[in-house]
Amino acid sequence: MKPAHLRATTLSLAIVMALAAPGLHAQDAGAADAAPAASATDIDGITVTARRRVESIMDVPVAVSAFGEEQLKDLQASDVTGLQGAVPNLNIVQGRGSANSTNIFIRGIGQPDALQSFDPGVGMYVDDVYYSRINGSMFSLFDVQQIEVLRGPQGTLYGKNSTGGAIKVTTRDPFDHSGGAAELTIGDYGRQEVRAYYSGQLSDTVAASIAAASIRNDGYVRDTDTGRHYNNDDTQAIRAKIAFQPSDTFRATLSFDHTEQDVAPTLGRPMAPLLQTDLGFGSIVVLHPGETGEWNHRSRTSFLPPGHGQVMESAGASLAMEWDFSPQWLFKSITSYRQLETNSFIDIDASEFELGDVLVALDQDQFSQEFQLQYDNGGNLQATFGAYYMKEDVPSYQEAYADDLFALFGTPIAFLRTIEDDLSTTSVAAFAHANWEFAPTWTLAAGVRWTRDEKEYDRSTSTFWGAPFSGINETVAFQAKASWTAVTPSVSLQKAFSDNVMGYVSANRGFKSGGFNGRANTVYDTQHAKFDPEYVWTYELGLKAASDDGRLRGSVAAFKSDYKDFQARVSQDVGTFPVLNAAELDIVGIEFEGSARFGEASVLSAQLGWLDAEYDRFDDFRLDPSYPGYDPNLNHDHVPFSPEMTARIAFQQGFSLGDAGNLGVGVDASYRSKTWLSVDNRDVLSQGAYTLFGLFGVWDSPQYVWQVRAGVRNLTDEVYKTEGQEFASVGNIQTAYYGLPRNWYLSVRYNF
Predict the structure, then answer these.
(1) Quick one: which of 282, 487, 563, 742 is 20 to 30 A from 720 by CA?
(2) Which residues make Cβ contacts (< 8 Å) with residue 439, sequence separation at least 6?
(3) How far is CA 66 from CA 49, 72, 87, 441, in A?
């Protein structure tokens, strides 16, 4: 379905200030039917499925950013973390100490703890299938048709409630793409990547596609003494799809995917002195000083090869079916089953000492079923009715090693903690959403969702002390079960001021269920393991517009969020990490996006986000000076992963080379103000303001058969932190993780 071009005679000055661009290249350069570069009037032709049906991005009363395949390449994004900097008020980075997890915050809302007992604050979807774990969510972008980032609570249309927003990844439909492509990429740090895709019709009613990727690099962190490399990648992925269309009224797509990753540990940098307590002398010993100055990407670890890396295997199958019962009614079914296995050694203290070293192994399986009934009268009324079911089981096994945490008269005391737990979640929901144009140029949309999440948790942990303390070894176990029910409404009022200038106001409620503390290591902890749900109300005012010739497009949104019962994991005593529904937050912000095309081949784009996230309250017993473990360096003045300013500006220029093809060049700069990387606001786990620059060039042959692309990311070799581990009560662990240093690449693509 192709949306009609939007026309207007006016464009708000505020919109012109906010620019965001489509690329200058064919949208499907990987297929044999690739089209020439988009003309100036195509700039508004972006469609999204933010409301589970295809609409122009300019008509949706939702703050949403969309990126096609070529736009993702122009962002120089090889996985979903490449969206960092390209979306206002989005923080998306590799998770702390993990090669396969993603930390996502939108508008100050996310989940900073990667433990499986927490639900993510931002929903991740691939072809409408919800991924319940942040592990395995660093998708390699090898057959992606489009990524949409929806900002704000998602409750009435999406499979799983979320408080922060949603990221939707849509892969290619075999019926829509004919032909294939193969791409080879090389770069520094031993980067070697091979990607391939092929799609075609097997008959008039059947089409199939297959996509594969092999991604390798040596890693950008190195042990100075041994020369070993860390923070590397070695991932292989494949996806196959079979689409059936036996009639004009029925469509079905069966999809299979499998990903394997086997890498060395992901290391950070110890930012605070690492401490050992000598019980004999009654003293504190500094094992490793806190590091200062610019990091040289050198680190140490107590995990030595072989067999002490991070291994992940993720696989799944889904079946999506659609029936057109009549011109007005459409029925959808989305069935999915997924498995995830990880076995990861994480050196939390990032040193050769054993203070906070852990093994985390989990074996997750997830089944989900979603039904939708959609109505469209062809005019002023559209509606969606749905039901959702998900069953997830996450058994895990963990070990914690701390042989250097305590000593007796200079002799270290061996310590091991083992953990076996099993979390089972059953989520059921029913939802309805309607879109009614009740008067010319006025549209009212309203929805409601009922959700019930039930969790059963079984946990046992044992401690094993070395001599002379083996007598205090103990096992602590508990079982718990609870359920939470929520009703989350949404409403928006939309006004078309002209054919392509639209404004809206909206209110949406989000919900994230409660759970049980996955670090309940004492009897007291088990008695207080349960934590409550989070809720958020977000109120938004937005404007979207385009010029009458399609050369200018933009949007602006202002929002206010009331966020209650933030689930905060804090570090209390050695081995004690309670989860508090500690906080209420008041979050306000403004976001701008837009683009402008000059001539036939020049595009200027920009995004700007301003965010003021503050705690109205943070109930934390550790802030009481009478508390025995009172730490004056602890505060909650800042909300983590919520910089006040995020901005990006990019310029792309295309050149026609006549019979020699087309050349495009692009440059961009993204800015991020000071960011706090821990709930406890440790100063060493903060990152000052910084700007990253990127540069690329791309050549397309006349018929788009060949494409050569070269680029540099982090052009000025900025050294910057992206994540932090904060376990200050265990050896004073405060570890920072860093973004990629300057790196270049060269890729060659053949389309057939």
Answers:
(1) 563
(2) none
(3) 10, 10, 9, 25
**Which residue, among 174, 149, 144, 181, has the nearest Cα to 48 in the 3D structure?**
149
Question: What distance in Å separates the CA atoms of residue 353 and residue 732, rounded to the nearest whole number?
Answer: 13
- Residues 659 and 702: their CA atoms lie apart, in Å, by 6
| Prediction pTM value | 0.91
Q: pLDDT tens-digit profile of 250-298?
A: 999 999 999 999 999 999 999 999 999 999 999 999 999 999 999 999 9
Identify the band that residue 356 occupies on the pLDDT scale cut at 50, 70 and 90: confident
No. of helices (H) and no. of strands (E), the chain: 3, 45
Give the 3-state DSSP-derived string for 443-495, with helices as H, strands as E and coil as C.
EEEEEEEEEEEEEEEEEEEEEEECCCCHHHCCEEEEEEEEEEEEEEEEEEEEE
**217 DSSP β-pair partners:** 233
Question: Do residues 239 and 211 make contact, with C-beta atoms less than 8 angstroms apart?
Answer: yes
Q: Count of alpha carbons within 13 Å of 306, Cβ hemisphere only?
A: 1
Contacts 24+ apart (CB under 8 A), 323-331: 323/249, 323/250, 324/248, 324/249, 324/250, 325/249, 327/378, 328/375, 328/376, 328/377, 328/378, 329/373, 329/374, 329/375, 330/372, 330/373, 330/374, 330/375, 330/376, 331/371, 331/372, 331/373, 331/374
Q: Give the integer Cα–Cα distance in Å for 463 and 523.
A: 13
> What's the mean pLDDT when you consider all of the chain?
90
Q: Output the furthest CA–CA distance in the chain (Å, rounded).
A: 83
Q: Mind listing the pLDDT tens digit for each residue in 99-129?
A: 988 999 999 999 877 788 888 889 999 999 9
From first CA to last CA, the distance across the chain in angstroms is 25
Residue 38 corresponds to which tokens in the numbers above?
């988009």
Whole-number Å distance between alpha carbons of 581 and 529: 12
164 sits in the region (left: phi over 0; alpha: psi -120 to 50; else beta) called alpha
Burial of 326 (0-12, 13-18, 19+ CB in 10 A): exposed
The reply to whether omega before 174 is within 30° of 0 (cis) is no
Contact call for residues 387 and 375 (beta carbons, < 8 A):
no
Under a CB-based contact definition with an 8 Å cutoff, are residues 585 and 561 in contact?
yes
Assess contact for 708 and 184: CB atoms under 8 A. no
Q: How far apart are CA 291 and CA 270, in angstroms?
A: 6
d(CA 583, CA 578): 14
Q: Map tokens 């004999």 to a residue.
A: 280
What DSSP string runs through 192-228? EEEEEEEEEESSSSEEEEEEEEEEEE--SEE-TTT--
Find, among 512, 511, 509, the residue nearest to 539 by Cα. Answer: 509
Chain segment 392-441, per-residue pLDDT in tens: 999 999 999 999 999 999 999 999 999 999 999 999 999 999 999 999 99
pLDDT above 50 for 640: yes
The structure tokens 């660093």 sit at: 138
Q: If we measure between CA atoms, which residue out of 208, 214, 172, 175 comes closest to residue 191?
A: 214
d(CA 76, CA 62): 26
Instruction: Let me know if 286 is exposed, middle or buried by CB neighbors in 10 A (0-12, 13-18, 19+).
Output: exposed
Respond yes or no on whether the N-terminal peptide bond of residue 468 is cis (omega within 30° of 0): yes
**CATH superfamily assigned to domain 13-751:** TonB-dependent receptor, beta-barrel domain (2.40.170.20)
CA distance 479 to 421: 10
Dist CA 357 CA 670 (whole Å): 35
Distance CA 137, CA 315 (A): 12
- Calpha distance 354→304 (Å, rounded): 12
What is d(CA 620, CA 584) in angstroms, rounded to the nearest whole number? Answer: 12
d(CA 158, CA 498): 30
* Ramachandran category for residue 687: left, alpha or beta (phi over 0 → left; psi -120 to 50 → alpha): beta
d(C-alpha 562, C-alpha 316), whole Å: 36
Q: Which residues contact 226 (CB under 8 A, 6 or more apart)?
A: none
CA distance 88 to 649: 12
